[in-house]
Amino acid sequence: MSISAHALDGVYGRSAAGVRARLERDGGGHWHDVAGGETDSEGRISDWCDEKFERGLYRIVFDSDYYFVGLGLTAVYPEVIVTFRMKDEADDYQIQVMFSPYSYSTHFRIS
User: Fold this and answer.
1) For residues 19 and 90, what is the distance between their CA atoms, to the nearest angstrom?
2) Quick one: pLDDT at residue 53?
3) What residue spans define the domains of the chain?
4) So what's the pLDDT on residue 24?
5) Strand order from edge to edge, sheet including 20-26
6) What pLDDT, on the 0 to 100 scale, is given for residue 80?
7) Which one of 12, 16, 26, 28 has the largest count of C-beta atoms within 10 Å of its C-beta?
8) Are 22 and 31 in contact (CB under 8 A)?
């Protein structure tokens, strides 16, 4: 079982390298940090694969503000939060987000 993230830059049509993100788990009304990271040159965070996960609600908080400030742009959405439900610990979960300063979209894949 693993969780990985992939960030894409919708302005320049490329991988979004250097996006800070944190993985959180729902703890009964409060979110608890599980892991943090920054996307690599391919826009991926894959080192969360080593964590132990249980069924439940998780979310990834992408720091889009930090990323776009580095490009000289201002993001309307300072954070992009993708919340998802883990139903089976045996599956691999891949969460992808494509964002620009004024929009974002997500894609979720289980394998």
Assistant:
1) 27
2) 86
3) 2-110
4) 97
5) 31-38, 20-26, 56-62, 80-86
6) 98
7) 16
8) no
- Parallel, antiparallel, or unpaired: how do β-strands 2-9 and 92-100 relate? parallel
Give the pLDDT confidence score for residue 89 in this predicted structure: 79
- With helix as H, strand as E and coil as C, how does the chain read? CEEEEEEEECCCCEECCCCEEEEEEECCCCEEEEEEEECCCCCEECHHHHCCCCCEEEEEEECHHHHHHHCCCCCCCCCEEEEEEECCCCCEEEEEEEEECCEEEEEEEEC
Query: 63-98 burial, b for 16+ CB within 10 Å, e for fewer?
Result: bbbebbeeeeeebebeebebeeebeeeeeebbbbbb
- Given a cut of 50, the residues of the chain with pLDDT beneath it are none
Confidence at residue 69, expressed as pLDDT on a 0 to 100 scale: 97
Report the distance separating Cα 17 and Cα 44, nearest Å: 8
CATH superfamily for 2-110 is: Transthyretin/hydroxyisourate hydrolase domain (2.60.40.180)
